[in-house]
Protein 1
Amino acid sequence: MATASEPTTIADLLDGLGGIPARRVLRRPRPGTATVADVTRLHDRTGRHFELIDGSLVEKAPGFDESIVALHLAVAIGEYLKVRDLGAAVGSSAPMRLAPGRVVIPDAAFISWERFPARNRRRGAIPAVVPDLVVEVLSKSNTPKEMKRKLEEYFRAGVRLVWYVDPAKRTVRVYTAVDQSTLLSEGDTLDGGDVLPGLAIAIRDWFAEAERNGPRLPKRGG
């Protein structure tokens, strides 16, 4: 008999995972029994990215346009870090063990040198690390309940700053705590706060660059 904490139906399982579409939940290994090793094994075999939540493998919501937005942001953070060597920026293919049995794959993240995984760790293993900054770029298959759950997990683990990027609305919700946030729009500047002091990204320029669909036209002489 299932305990009170165990899902008894597929609907219960999906609701517990944040009301996500069933197509994102892997059937084998059976939900509730998956391990960190399964995350690595499946990626090596299929090239697909899965997060590990309560023993279930949940595919990272894919998105071509979302990945471009995340890449441009990660590049901007990387350029900043060339001047201020505070840590390292990682992209959307960097799984991290946020807690025992919990693997997350943010769309971008910043890890300070104080938190960076030991250099002598086993190559290819998923490191146990809590980033200072996490970036999630929202896609159509993300649900509000899923993102609320992620937000709570990030701050519970010790993440200091979370950015939720909505490409459709061209906005960024900046969280400094689960219940403390600011919504920025196109006319605003995204700054790194206490985590990345001095970082400033013009949101309009960032989205304009990410949404380009052709080469830049040469400037006319004047």
Note: The chain has a mean pLDDT of 92.
Protein 2
Amino acid sequence: MSDTAAAVVRAYYKTLRQGDPLPPYFLVDESTTKFGISEGAFGYDAVADALESQTETTTDWTIESHGLEVTEHGEYATFADEVTMAWTDLEAGTDRRFETRWSGTLVRRDAVESKTRSDGSGSETNDDSSADRTDGPAWLFRTMHVSTADKL
């Protein structure tokens, strides 16, 4: 996987389309947040639970990026995109489609892991999780916000 933040965002989109696990793309930290179209999750554990539930209850994802903008600023990056997203809700038996706006921040994995190892000040919620993710993305989402102007 490429070490650019833009490549990680694109890989996240691909992973979502494929129905593969999404939590490895998020920072294991109490400060991690993710807002979806109709929900919010605060802290890595809540984000991971929400993503795992989403994967279990949805299928046939389409993610079409219409203008991804990513800027790296040393140890962090920002991103924004307009995305057409569609999926099948297995619980409701309904196809859903939205024109959405995505934005958020990413942190460079090696900077977070280095800080946690060197001074012990990291607030990671589960030390085992970071050990399992050595082959993960070079950048991790700290925040992600997905919204739409459509009414639900």
Note: The helical segments are 5-18, 44-57, 109-119, 127-132.
Protein 3
Amino acid sequence: MYIEEIRQFLPHRYPFLLVDRVLSCTPGESITAIKNVSVNEPFFTGHFPQQAIMPGVLIIEALAQATGLLGFRTMSEMPSDDILYLLVGVDHARFKRQVVPGDQLMLKASILKQTRSVWKFSCEASVDGQLCVKADMLCAAQQMSDK
């Protein structure tokens, strides 16, 4: 999947769309995607100006976006305007390596289980084969309310 197709599945837009390309996706099983980390990312101006490091929460968000793509592909559905796919839990998160400008972040997620509208994923982010972040993540579909 290239960026045009990714944008059909994820509501995120610049500067918060954190998946640049999907390398492989096996519905019902796993996904591998990439995030190219550029020095021009807006968060680098403040995190940290003297030594730019991608915030860990944004790596988690990139993994969550990859799980969204896997979930929609597994359900063979396109997102609808009345459903919001949300990150609802992060368990066993471990941060092993810093991510810096110039890195290509490899995002991998595998489905562990799905119960109704809640999905559990095993996720890893790595750079050049070195593990950066590992976590189990829970995501859920939520009906949007009319206000």
Note: The chain has one domain: 3-143.
